[in-house]
Structures are given as C-alpha cells and as structure tokens.
Amino acid sequence: MVQIEAKDLSLGYEKQVVVKDLNFTVSEKDYLCIIGENGSGKTTLVKTLLSLNEPLKGTISFSGGLKRNEIGYLPQQSNVQRDFPATVEEIVMSGFAGKGGKFFYDASQKKKALENMERMKVKDLSSSSFSQLSGGQQQRVLLARALCASQKVLLLDEPVSGLDPQASASMYELIRQLNKEGMTIIMITHDIEDVIDDASHILQIGRSNRFTDIDTFKKERKG
C-alpha cells in the first residue's frame, strides 16, 4: 500500500530550484535510503516530506491512512540538541506535543512513551539528564521520541552521524528491527554499505535523480 508518492517534484527556496523532476513512491514497510552529495537537495526533501516546505512544482501526496503530521522524525543532532536541559522522559514525551492541540499528556501517552523507551533500551535512563548521555544513548532517546510521534513512518536524517562503530551498529539493529515489525523507514545516509542489505529501495538525488529497487541498485553497482 502506497503511503507517499512524489510526482515531477521540484524543490528549492524562493524559486531557486535545488532538485527537480523527482519521482518516487514509499509503500508500507519499505526501507528507503536517500543518498546524494552535500547540497544535492536531501535536506530540502526532508523539509518537504515534513510539510515545512511547499514544492516549487509537482506534487507530494500522502495515502494509505498516513496523514501529513504522522511522520516521526529523527534529525541530525547539533551541539544545541546534545546539550538540551531536559530528562530522557521529557524528551521522549515531547514526541506527543501538539497532537490534537493538547498541552498535557494523558495516561495512554505516558504508557506508550514508556513502551517506546523500553523498545529503545533507555527506560532505565528515564530520569537522567539528556545532556549527560552518550551519543548513542541520545540517539536512542530521540528515536523513542520519533516513535511517539508516529506508528507508521520514520524519517531518519543521518541517524548514526558522529557515533562510534559499536553505537552505530546498535542503532542500525534497532532500525532494522522496527522495519521488520512493520514500520516504514525513510533514511538519509552516507553509509550505504552498512544498510544495503536492509534497504528495499534507493533514491539517488543529484544531477540525475534515480529511484530504484535494491536488487536493481546492487546489479548496477556490480556493473
């Protein structure tokens, strides 16, 4: 079942085109990896998927029961985010912020937050300060937060950036398991070698945009 479809999409700012003629679909349980050079338009696409930017041309539509505000987002971390003065539980609970216009959390949301913290193996850190955690722990906390925002699609922007090999492997394993459990994954990555066996499709953004299934991508790489 198709959840997201982009047709003849052109993206940019103030009529300056960054990427054009982009066509792709994301279906339920897909694992889509988005690759491309710096400045190729990956971040602009992320903002468009999150409905923060409007396309300059073309359309991007949501279907299959997915609404525009139902994408869980794990951004690249900045130094400001790493030093954010809040507890793990507060960070995770903030994934529910704004849902239904509410400014408080009900019992079902608190239960779901605890479940997501347990899934991401950070429940025992719930009262810890986010800023005191390791990079890998912080990313697992932010992934739990993204799960509170969506039970259907996760959009991950370089989720292992800055992590050591062990923490990166742990993060990829968590994402792999979420996909096996039915979560649709959209991931921007430079580490295609680390996820090529997990991906279902590849979207290459740049001078020539290409959307292919993983088997075609692998065959083309072998030449």
Q: How is this structure best summarized?
A:
By secondary structure, the protein is an alpha/beta fold. It has eight helices and nine strands.
Question: What CATH first level of the largest domain would be assigned?
Answer: Alpha Beta
Strand fraction band?
A: 25-35%
* CATH architecture classification name of the largest domain: 3-Layer(aba) Sandwich
What is the end-to-end distance?
A: 32 Å
- Strand order in the largest sheet: 5-6-7-3-8-9
Low-confidence stretches: none
- Average pLDDT number: 90
What's the CATH H-level superfamily name of the largest domain?
A: P-loop containing nucleotide triphosphate hydrolases
- Number of spatially distinct domains: 2
What is the helix content?
25-40%
> Mind describing the biggest β-sheet?
6 strands, mixed
Shape: globular
Main structural class: alpha/beta
Number of beta strands: 9
CATH topology title of the largest domain: Rossmann fold
Radius of gyration: 17 Å
Number of helices: 8
The run of helices and strands is EEEHEEHHHHEHEHEEH
Secondary-structure blueprint of this entry?
Elements: E1 2-13, E2 16-27, E3 31-35, H1 42-49, E4 57-62, E5 71-74, H2 79-82, H3 88-93, H4 107-119, H5 135-149, E6 153-157, H6 165-180, E7 184-188, H7 192-195, E8 201-204, E9 210-213, H8 214-222
Kindly describe this structure:
- The protein has helices spanning 42-49, 79-82, 88-93, 107-119, 135-149, 165-180, 192-195, 214-222, and strands at residues 2-13, 16-27, 31-35, 57-62, 71-74, 153-157, 184-188, 201-204, 210-213.
- The protein has 223 residues and is of the alpha/beta class.
- It has two domains: 1-70 and 153-223, Rossmann fold (3-Layer(aba) Sandwich), CATH 3.40.50.300; 82-149, no CATH class.
- The mean pLDDT is 90.
